[in-house]
Amino acid sequence: MSDQQKSLQQIIDFRIEKLHKLKEAGVDPYPHYFKPTHSSTEILDHFDDLENKTVVVAGRIMALRKMGKASFTHIMDGAGRIQAYVRRDDVGEDSYSHFKLMDIGDFVGIEGYVFKTKMGETSIHAEKFTVLSKSIRPLPVVKEKDGETFDAFSDKEQRYRNRHLDLIVNPGVRETFIKRTKIINALRSYLDNRDFLEVETPVLQPLYGGANARPFVTHHNALDQEFYLRIADELYLKRLIIGGFEKVYEIAKDFRNEGMDRSHNPEFTMLEYYEAYADYEDTMALVEDMIRTASKVVDAEQIVWGEMNIDLSKPFHKKAYFDLLKNVTGHDLSKAGLEELISVFNEMNIDLPENANISQLLGILMDDLVEPTLIHPTFIIDYPKEVSPLAKLHRNGDESLVERFELIIGGSEFANSFSELNDPIDQRKRLEAQAALREAGDEEAQPVDENFLQAMECGMPPTGGVGLGVDRLVMLLTGNRWIRDVLLFPALRSE
């Protein structure tokens, strides 16, 4: 056992000894129930109304200054922190002796009247003290002085593994996840107010689809067959459009068995919605307005993103896919075959993947050379058919293009949208082409979903659909550069 482990065990043993002393004194250190009347913030914000009035608060001890006959403590509840003044003559000698057994991290209840100390700090003068939960494991040591924090619990790996501690000692983390909930509620409210119906589709699917990605595979014991964690909910939502619902959406957990980096996690949250009789121009307008609305809820229209300034209040840009590629490569690649694309890779000294197809090479050029340069919100429009097997051919008559956009902000993708393909014969051909790519070694190509194709053969109206990355939007609107910082419990390698 290391010296650090020995020291920790000594602290735990000492706290357990205090726990036993409380029990021997007839105190239940883990009572069933306690009812606060006010939060810390309510008291601080309404001091004039509450001065000298009795309040009851509950929370975790975050600072503790014990003295002979009186002590000060700061307790933290779900709203914030407030100071309490505990004096032996007011709470009673027995109760004060119990208070002297308290440690930072314990939960307590305080009943008393509101006053201000000589230093002008709004506080509670305790008249009754209740032990609510005795902690036996210490919190990370965080020291504060003159508004500055020292010895913060800042190791990111440990913060992710011990999110409960992160939330306790790093107030900014709590605020990020409060904002996350507000953002998701704003997205939901925006769609609800436009008569979209929120639905739920299967997480376990007999066949995955709706995106180019590798799935997680599991075994369904009762049915004795392999199932997949969904990589997208697109194909099920489209079946609902076919079934007669004209506006549907789902805020869903999706799973892709792929790499992890600054903006990717294997488990992530996606908003997908589909609207009958709409196209990608309609979804473009709605997505822009929805993001701007959500940004206002958390006061984030003006964003400092690393060294970049992003203004969500200004109109988003629109730029064509092949125009952007031409700007960075010097070549018009709109009709390029595999050989020409390989030549461009060689010319620009870009590593060429083994057995790559046209779709993969175009994707690499876009992902590596174009998207990182797009800082102001930009819709990349009019994609090649090769990279968009579920999108409708462009109405301009160019059969190499589809009506699709991706929204890029700060160099990252935030949304993907199509004028959805509703020609069942064309859809079958494209999924069969995807299956051929899969057989040739492209593990991310989509399989043929016969159930979806048969549903489409019953007739699907013109439809606009979009997938919006919720985690990335939360990153943007809270100023976090790593996706793990906006996920309460991100995936981590076992210690």
Q: In short, what is this structure?
A:
The chain folds into two domains: 3-139, Beta Barrel (OB fold (Dihydrolipoamide Acetyltransferase, E2P)); 173-316 and 376-486, BirA Bifunctional Protein, domain 2. The chain has 16 helices and 20 strands. It has helices spanning 3-24, 40-45, 47-50, 88-91, 93-99, 156-161, 163-169, 171-192, 234-242, 280-297, 321-329, 338-347, 358-370, 424-439, 450-456, 470-478; strands spanning 54-66, 70-76, 81-87, 107-116, 122-133, 143-145, 148-150, 197-198, 204-205, 217-220, 225-229, 247-255, 267-276, 302-305, 308-311, 317-320, 378-384, 401-409, 412-419, 463-469.
Question: What this model shows, in words?
Answer:
This protein has 495 residues and is α+β, with helices and mostly antiparallel strands. It folds into two domains: 3-139, Nucleic acid-binding proteins (OB fold (Dihydrolipoamide Acetyltransferase, E2P)); 173-316 and 376-486, Bira Bifunctional Protein, Domain 2 (BirA Bifunctional Protein, domain 2, 2-Layer Sandwich). Helices cover 34% and strands 26% of the residues. The chain is built from 16 helices and 20 strands. The protein has helices at residues 3-24, 40-45, 47-50, 88-91, 93-99, 156-161, 163-169, 171-192, 234-242, 280-297, 321-329, 338-347, 358-370, 424-439, 450-456, 470-478; strands spanning 54-66, 70-76, 81-87, 107-116, 122-133, 143-145, 148-150, 197-198, 204-205, 217-220, 225-229, 247-255, 267-276, 302-305, 308-311, 317-320, 378-384, 401-409, 412-419, 463-469. The strands form five sheets. The protein has an eight-stranded mixed β-sheet with strand order 8-12-13-20-19-18-17-16, with helices on both faces. It has a five-stranded mixed β-barrel with strand order 1-2-3-5-4. It has a three-stranded antiparallel β-sheet with strand order 9-11-10, with no helix packed on it. Helix 7 crosses helix 8 and helix 8 crosses helix 10. The radius of gyration is 29 Å and the shape is elongated. The mean pLDDT is 93.
